[in-house]
Amino acid sequence: MDKKEEELVVGGYRFGTVADAEAARTEGKKIANLEEHLDYRKPQNVLLVYNKAIDNRVFLTPVGLTYLQKMQEQMAKWGVPREKIRPIPLYATFSNKTENNSSVRRSIAARSPKVEFKGRFITSVCINILMAAALAAVIYLSMRSDTPTIVNYRTAVVNEFSQWEQELTERENAVREAERALNSTP
User: Fold this and answer.
1) What is the full DSSP assignment across 3-35?
2) 0.70 exceeded by the pTM?
3) Model confidence over 37-79: pLDDT tens digits?
4) Out of 2, 23, 51, 156, which could bridge 148 as a Cys pair, Cβ 3.0 to 4.6 Å?
5) pLDDT over threshold 70, residue 94
6) 88 contacts 68 by C-beta, under 8 angstroms
7) How do beta strands 9-10 and 13-14 pair?
8) Residue 84: phi, psi to the nearest 5?
9) Dist. CA 65–CA 86, nearest whole Å
């Protein structure tokens, strides 16, 4: 076996990546530390450490999971009730064929509860109606507002300029009449 292969083998398992092998080595060190400090004469201490290791996901590789299984067997020998010994959770999948396997799909469907979509549909329709009403209100308010918006901006600017033009024309006419009045008086 070459050096690269030796890096991948830990505790009798050949891992696919160096990172997984390093994780297994780290778990091996944790196991050695536990073996050194754990008092196996007290089953309640072992059960406490076992449960804490499961809750904190201390062991994830086969090396650590094997150690957890060894702890299970020891506790069973000491008379710890089976219902107090939790099963070891596996956080990985072992088959990529679940989508294609009809028996697996049926068993998954049988285990999963039926979800009622009627209530969700009604809620969705109500929310959509409220959103449409809010949008209509915003459009109505923007059309009725005196402030120019992107919808009526051109009209507002044209009206403003025509109003200014009318005022200027009225002022020019008033100035011209005043000039005529001044020019006509000798």
Assistant:
1) HHHHHHEETTEE-SSHHHHHHHHHHHHHHHHHH
2) no
3) 887 778 888 888 888 888 888 888 888 888 888 888 888 888 8
4) 156
5) no
6) yes
7) antiparallel
8) -85, -20
9) 13
